[in-house]
Amino acid sequence: MAEETPCNVRVCPTWGTWGNWSECTASCGVGWTGRQRVCLNGRAGDTGCDDGGVQEKESCNEWDCPSSCPAVPMQLINAPGALFSASSELEGFEAYRSIMNTDFAWCPKASDNAKWIQIDLRIAYSVAGISVQGYLNESTGQPFWVSRFQVLYENSKGKFKPLLDNTGGARTFIGPVGPIEIATRHWEPVESQSWRVKVLSVEPRRKGCLRMELLSCQGNPTFGLQYEGSSL
């Protein structure tokens, strides 16, 4: 007759309940909040405590911080090729046509998988924000706009560096919710001669057009000349 003896007589490991979320690390401009839990009757990784970890982390307070200075539009209006460049352009919708509240816009090619538009100022200028707008084709009624983007500036080493959020990551800006609305985003003033908008997502998919205006606390430098337009 076989004998049986109890073994491993202990409570199996299991996760405890999550603690409360911590206070957000920033009041605006993206911060972090987190919470913790412990493995009861064991350690994290043991059977019963092997699904997930002891910490969870989420971003919080993702809205823009208010401008720390009275930022105003720089009103950059220029002749073709003098200040503006881009990863690609549709004919009649070149980079230099990306002026706010006009009948034109910058529209990259649908095949462009790394869309960006760049403004090269003639001198280094302190920039503290950007306003962006889409484009509505009035003849067809078709809307185009950029829904998410990043802003990069050229540093002293000649490299483009993204603006950062409070977590130290590249800051992602939310664009307008339609082609006519204007979305204005602010940051602490940064001085640079060259600025680039990196497009992350567009509406409709693979298309998207952009009009924009840099904002500065130094006033309006009034670079460049008027231009002649076209229509999509």
Plain-language structure description:
- With 232 residues, this protein is an all-beta fold.
- The protein has 2 domains: 12-62, TSP-1 type 1 repeat (Single Sheet), CATH 2.20.100; 72-216, Jelly Rolls.
- The chain is 0% helix and 37% strand.
- It is built from no helices and 13 strands.
- The strands form 3 sheets. Strands 5, 6, 7, 8, 9, 10, 11, 12 and 13 form a 9-stranded antiparallel β-sheet that branches. Strands 1-3 form a two-stranded antiparallel sheet.
- Strand 8 and strand 9 (143-154) form a beta hairpin.
- The protein starts with 13 loop residues before the first strand and ends in a 16-residue tail after the last strand.
- The number of distinct structural domains comes to 2
Kindly report the CATH topology of the largest domain: Jelly Rolls
What is the helix content?
A: under 10%
The CATH top-level class label of the largest domain: Mainly Beta
- The CATH architecture of the largest domain can be given as Sandwich
Number of strands: 13
**What kind of oligomer do you see?**
single chain
> Number of helical runs?
0
InterPro entries: FA58C, Galactose-bd-like_sf, TSP1_rpt, TSP1_rpt_sf
Domain F5/8 type C: 69-217
Pfam families: F5_F8_type_C
Protein name: F5/8 type C domain-containing protein
